[in-house]
Amino acid sequence: MFNSFGEIFRFTTFGESHGKAIGVIIDGVPAGLKFDEEFLVSELDRRRPGKNRFATQRKESDTPEVLSGVFEGMTTGTPISIVIFNKDQKSKDYSNIKDIFRPGHADFTYWHKYGIRDYRGGGRSSARETAARVAAGAVAKMILRELDIEIEAGVVEIGGIRAENIDYEYAKNSPIFALDSEAEKKWIEAIDKAREEHNSLGGVVKLRIKNLPVGLGEPIYYKLDNILASAMVSINAVKGIYIGNSEAHKLTGLENNDEISKDGFLSNNCGGVLGGISNGEDVELEVFFKPTPSIFKPQKSVDIYGNEVEVNLKGRHDPIVAVRGSVVAEAMAACVVADMLFLNMTRKMEYIKKIYQ
Ligand SMILES: Cc1cc2nc3c(=O)[nH]c(=O)nc-3n(C[C@H](O)[C@H](O)[C@H](O)COP(=O)(O)O)c2cc1C
Ligand SMILES: C=C(O[C@@H]1CC(C(=O)O)=C[C@@H](OP(=O)(O)O)[C@H]1O)C(=O)O
C-alpha cells in the first residue's frame, strides 16, 4: 500500500450520524493486552458532542459497548468490536434540506456519486463517525502506553490567531484544548463572536508523539510522514498537514537543518522524521482544519433537480471543528504508530527470531 495505513493494526468503522448506532471493528491487536475500558470511556468523553458552548449542542453520552475480542479484562487476539448507540438524532431538523446541497459539506458529492443519500445529519459523511475512530485510537493508545509512547495534541491557531507559548499540559484542562492560556482568551472571544454571527471558524492543531524509537517507517512506500499525512487528511474537514516546523519553507537550509551532536539532534525542525523514518526525536505535526461548513446564514445552492435555492439550516453544529478535531487527530496518530510498530517488528529478522525462539 502506497499511501494508506492499516497493514497490521487496522480498523473499519460503520454507521451513520442519525442511524441506530456507529461503531468500529479493530483487527491486529495482540492477545494478552490489558483492556482498559475506563480509559476507552474517558477518551470518548474528551471528543463527545454537547459538552460546552464550543461544540455542537447534540447531546450524546457516547457510552461504548465492547462486543468482542476481550475476555476477563484482556484482549484475546480476535477482532475487537465496539458499538455506540445514537440517542439524540432529531432528524426532523434536516427535512428542509433533504433535496438541497449544503455548501461546504459532502451532500453534493455523495448525491452525485451514489444517487442516494442519507440526508439526516450528513449520514456517513458526518463527523459523528469520528467517535468510532477515537475508540480505535484508545485501543492503540493502550498498546503504546505499554511502550511509554505518548501522544498529545491541542489547538495552536484559531481564526488566524496564533499561539505564542505552547504548553501541552495546559491543553489537557482547557475547554477548547488550547495550547496557550493567553491565546485561549482571544480564541474564546472569536468563537463566541462567530457563534453570535451564525458563522464558524477554522483552526490548526499541533500534535506530538513522544518516545518513538529510531527507525519507524519504510523508505519509499510506507513512509512515516506519508502515512501520518494520509491518516490526518482522512479526518473530516482536514485540508492539510505540516510535518515539523510549519515555518520551515521560509527558512534557509542553514537555518532549517537540525545539526547533530554525539548527544543527539540540536533542534527538531524536521519534526522527528528524516527520509520517511523516525529519528528518535518527538514526531511533531500540525493539522489544518477548515471552518465548519454548516452555518446558520442564508447561502446560495441548488437542489437535486438543478433549481437554484436559498439554503437555511437548522440542526446543531460545531462553531469550530479543530477543537474536537484535536482528539480525533491524536486517535489517528495512535493507530498509525501502533501499525508502524508491528510492521517494523515483522521487517526485522532479530525480532522474528526472538518470537520463534
Ligand atoms: C470533530 C468534528 C466535528 C465536526 N462537526 C461538524 C458540524 O457540526 N457541522 C458540519 O457541518 N461539519 C462538521 N464537521 C466537518 C464535516 O464533517 C466535513 O466538513 C464534511 O464531512 C465534508 O468533508 P470535508 O470538509 O473533508 O470536505 C466536523 C468535523 C470534525 C472532525
Ligand atoms: C454528532 C456529532 O457531531 C456532528 C458532526 C456533524 C458533521 O457534519 O460532521 C454535524 C452535526 O451533527 P449531525 O450529524 O446531526 O448533523 C454534529 O453534531 C459528533 O461529533 O458526535
TrEMBL record:
Its EC number is 4.2.3.5. Keywords: Amino-acid biosynthesis, Aromatic amino acid biosynthesis, FAD, Flavoprotein, FMN, Lyase, NADP. PROSITE patterns: CHORISMATE_SYNTHASE_1 (PS00787), CHORISMATE_SYNTHASE_2 (PS00788). Its cofactor is FMNH2. One of its GO terms (biological process) is aromatic amino acid family biosynthetic process. Homotetramer. Belongs to the chorismate synthase family. This reaction introduces a second double bond into the aromatic ring system. This is Chorismate synthase.
